[in-house]
Amino acid sequence: VTDVDAEKKKIKTKGGKSFDYDRAVVSPGVDFQWDKVEGFSQADVETIPHAWKAGKQTTILRSQLEAMDDGGTVIIVAPPNPFRCPPGPYERASLIAHYLKTNKPKSKILILDSKDKFSKMPLFTGGWEKLYPGMIEWVAGTKGGIVTQVDAKNMTVYNEAGEPIKGAVINYIPHQTSGAIARKAGLADATGWCPVNQKTFESTLKNNIHVIGDSSNSKPLPKSGYAASSEGKMCAAAVVTAINGVDMPDPSYSNTCYSLVGPEYGISVAAVYRLEAGKINKVKGAGGVSPKDADESFRRAEALYASGWYSSITRDMFS
Asked: Which residues have CB under 8 Å from 17's CB, separation 6+?
């Protein structure tokens, strides 16, 4: 799909075909804002990968880690909110640390963050202290973690104070916005994200188009795969009720997210959401996070649950 014409209610494809629709559901994912830091452009991702969309970028990052000398520093630049997969940069740091501990134990990981807190922060930092003592350093935005300039040629980033920070491998994850096709179709507002009716996920800017997944502004639902799956089911119900001319019941949404700090060290968060006065709200007392003081058997169990969760949700969405 290359274009969604909301006025003519047509969808155009790269092959030159067009399709009429009564209602359209789009899930365009995220796009990157390349102009948020000085000196960095899309062309630099061959040297400094984001690896936030799987494929060649993932392979580049892996190859760089494999080629890095023992004792090198891996810099991960985490993006500001909102972005796809809130715990993602910290999951990545964890599993890179596992690789380095096993293969290049003199190496370090430096996380430069524009934020002062992040998803499941106490659980991640506790896991790092246990599994990778002294290997991972996280720098908050107010402590010098905001990156304002990237020099891909010299593998250096600069913080707000102008301090140069050099890395053997740099994983710069850019600021994010809604997918290009959503913005082209006029579904995004000034924030860069797509406002929706939080009951039906129909766009508030273009009638008869529903936006689900990362592109939609559906706070407090996170931009996660599980939340997107939940949104998809409710959106399907909204489309069916609209076509049949009946009222849709108030929906309920859920999100569950497992993270691996190590291959046998899992942590999780879960939440339930309901629609109240036309807006999504978290249900108090529903869900929760892994216990901070859980023992090794609990962490191993959650790592197993993570694998089962991934298998079940991908089967649910794609089979």
From this structure: none
pLDDT average, residue stretch 35-60: 96
Query: For the segment 179-195, what is each residue's pLDDT rounded down to a tens digit?
Result: 999 999 999 999 999 99
Tell me if 100 sits within 8 A of 135, measured CB to CB: yes
Beta-ladder partners of 156: 151, 166
CB atoms within 10 A of CB 189: 14
Per-residue pLDDT, averaged over 251-275, amounts to 96
DSSP string, 53-90: SSSHHHHHHHHHHHHSPTT-EEEEEEPPSS-SSTTHHH
Provide CB contacts within 8 A for 62, sequence distance 6+: none
Q: Do the beta carbons of residue 127 and residue 265 sit within 8 Å?
A: yes
Distance, in Å, from the CA atom of 25 to the CA atom of 202, rounded to the nearest integer, reads 8
Exposure string (b/e) for 93-122, b if CB count within 10 Å is 16 or more?
A: bbebbbebeeebeebbbbbbbbbeebbbee
The encoded tokens of residue 222 equal: 């996170």
Q: pTM for this structure?
A: 0.95
pLDDT surpasses 90 at 173: yes
Sign of the CA dihedral with 196 first, then 199, 201, and 205 last = negative
Q: Under a CB-based contact definition with an 8 Å cutoff, are residues 119 and 270 in contact? A: no
- For residue 220, the model assigns a pLDDT of 95
Confidence of residue 317 (pLDDT cuts 50, 70, 90): confident
Max CA-CA distance within the chain?
65
To the nearest whole number, what is the mean pLDDT of the chain?
96
- Half-sphere exposure of residue 314: CA atoms within 13 angstroms, side-chain side: 6
Q: At what angle do helices 121-131 and 88-103 cross, to 10 degrees?
A: 0
